[in-house]
Design brief:
Anti-sigma-factor_SerPK; ATP-binding protein; kinase; serine/threonine-protein kinase; HATPase_dom; alpha+beta
Length: 164
Amino acid sequence: MGTKVLTMLEPLWQGFPPVDPLAVSGSASCTLPPRYESVRSARKFTRDTLQGWELDELFDSVALVVSELVTNALRHAVLAAPEHADAPPPARLHLMRWSQRLICAVRDPSDDSPVAGEADSAADSASESGRGLYLVDSFSDSWGWHPLSGVTHGKIVWAQFRLP
């Protein structure tokens, strides 16, 4: 992997479990335009990428997590804050494959931390939202987030999967 690619991914390493960046065996990313159709595009991008890496068996869990992370980025950061919509890119999905791990990371322009919803009560049982980070936690091996450092605003929310 070239030095240019490692330099582009450097902000993503912050907050991840310790892994040698040189152990990256694959990396792919796509821009997420500020519209909800981007969730479907992110799932297709994830399917195509995992197929290329011969990790098809992970698709269901990874796609669910990607859908939740992308939906949260769009709903709470991009579409909720039009002043950030012009920032290139408004949101971005990164998939990184290490020797024993897969990382799904979504970058968005908001400085706000992700907040898990409380959708456990009977009053919330019909709620359409509030379960996203609970699902991310349930279907991934770990997840976290960190603010972007430097002059840019935003954060990275990531989920990790152990590879078979």
